Amino acid sequence: MPQQDIVKIAIQMPGAYPQLIQLDQKKPLSAVIKEVCDGWNLPGPDNYALQYADGVQTYITESNRLDIKNGCILRLTKAPGRCAEDLYKGIQSSDSGVRCDSLKQLACVSTDVTFAQEFISRDGHSLLVKIVEDADEAPLIMTHTLTGFMELMDHGIVSWENLSAVFIKKIANFVNAKVLDASIQQVSLAILESMVLSSSSLFQQVKQEVTLERLLSHLQVTNQQIQTKAMALLMALLQTAGDADRQVRMNIIHSSASVGDEMAHYLYVLQSVTLNHLEPRMRMPLDSYNQDQREILHGLRQAAFETESENSLSHERRRSLCAKEFKKLGFSNNSNPGQDLLRAPPGLLALDTMAYFASRYPDAYSRFVLENSSREDKHECPFARSSIQLTLILCEILRIGEPPSETGSNYHPIFFSQDRLLEELFCVCIQLINKTWKEMRATQEDFDKVMQVVREQITRTLSSKPTSLELFKNKVNALNYSEILKLRQTERLHQEETLAPPVLELKERLKPELLELIRQQRLNRLCQGTLFRKISSRRRQDKLWYCRLSPNHKVLHFGDVEEDTETPPIESLQEKIPVADIKALLTGKDCPHMKENKGKQTKVCTIRYKEWIYDISVSLLQFCLWTDGLSVLLGRDMSSECMRSELDILLSMEIKLRLLDLENVPIPDCAPPVPKPPSNFNFCYDLSQAEQ
Fold first, then answer.
1. DSSP assigned state of 672
2. Can you give the pLDDT at residue 670?
3. Quick one: average pLDDT of 568-597?
4. Would the CA dihedral through 173, 177, 180, 186 be positive or negative?
5. Is the previous residue joined to 28 through a cis bond, with omega within 30 degrees of 0?
6. How far is CA 612 from CA 424, 522, 589, in A?
7. Which of 302-316, 348-362, 376-390, 401-415 has the lowest mean pLDDT?
8. CA-CA-CA-CA torsion for 246, 252, 258, 264, nearest 10 degrees?
9. How far, CA to CA in Å, does 258 sit from each of 118, 212, 251?
10. What's the pLDDT at 595?
11. Is the peptide bond before 569 cis (omega within 30 degrees of 0)?
């Protein structure tokens, strides 16, 4: 006899010593039960059955007996038919205590499909339906009745469509009741959810019986189980429309929302409560000692770079390789990247979104990382830093962690058409960051400005209420950097048109003074100087040179410098360009070498001085500072976008200050005294730690 046909098990029975037997899997189960009963001198083996003693106490049948493993502990108990008969009689007892005990036991054993078949064959489920329809039992008995009914129906033996309209109305009344036992409402919500998901006809009945006010109130209770069940029912109502097509469900959402503010508020609360389940991850910083989190972090690195087998490397070599690759990934603290994820929010949610992007869209992830890690022109977009900031931006836009407002109605239709909305939005928007970064020709210094533009792109797109992720993706990618600038300009002009004439007059009077302030700031920056990289014929930026304006604003001094040079003295810069001899200042497409780089966007200005031409390729901020400063030196008007932005900010601040109601408010002649320093600085964040 093969060894696998024999299983060594223990069999228990209350009040008796366990039996250790060798179960022959080829012997009929009835014969095995007879031998066990004979061992305890029990008559009528047909009245007994075996079931697991631990975990899910499933009955052993001929169909599942092969799942029994060596060392399993079984229990001799009532046969499912006998148990079903006893409970069926107990439920009809005139003694409420017997009824309660029978229904409580029924709720437990109904999880087993073998028992459920026996009980339903005796029409036991109809008996439970009648108890609910009569609705004259105590709350505890009703809770056991509903729980047992739910467990029986979950096996799919009886169709939900066989239920009467009276029963459905009773269950809906339990949900709609303002004062009722929480356990009854919890099970009732689960029963209605199963009804809605089972058929379109039941969906219509439940939709008519259940009021939105009560569902909203269930979402706002402190009982987590009721809140979860209510949310599940709401999602089921939204997702069931008699048609599997997602767009049909969206049409139902829009038609419902157009009825009034009540439905809009209902959708808003549902969205808010669902998204707030992400809050614990958002509030939790990375734990450097958590092995799972560390593996996810290293998984990001391994998914981006195909490296030699790390097991064969020494500890120091492996550590150096990891630090190098984490730096390419865009972590600020490449030797300990977990430090970048200590800020909460976004906390672990940033790690989750990065891991989701890497696993869900591996090609896009690899393309993003490799494209930027191989750049040598200082215009690389840092993936990790961008991801952490983007996750925070999405949390703020979607208001994750904020409790729903009592009067809120601003929901996003895309939420109801897309599973894992935050993660999918992240996957679209992280690629948008890379695209916008290239459009702005940004460097690390421009990081905050790029993220401001991306936030505006996301906010403007979501405000148009896209109904699908694909529609959001198309709209947000069409809203490029140049479109953002046009929209800003249009809105600024519109704002100016709406200002009162006295305010416009004040604005025009203030403008010359503020322009002079910006001019002086530009000249001061030129006097401080800037470190540039020389552009070789192959567009590689390897050598460095420094340029600064003389204090009398008459000469530009420049010369080659070493890598670690900060601000060289003006005497060490041997080359000079007299400002009076500068013939022209060209930017962008007007620069001579731009003809060789058609279609490429870059921030370049060219100075024509005698027979020499000097190209300056810089970041967006440096470009604005130098073009404005050189324009001032040449007697021209400043025209950079940075100048326009700064002028708007200064004008807005100055006008607000001028319009403040300061009547009877004493204004001191001198600045107030500086307060004494605190006794310690433990509240300060050590920025140097993040740079190590």
1. P
2. 86
3. 79
4. positive
5. no
6. 52, 24, 19
7. 302-316
8. -70
9. 49, 15, 11
10. 57
11. no
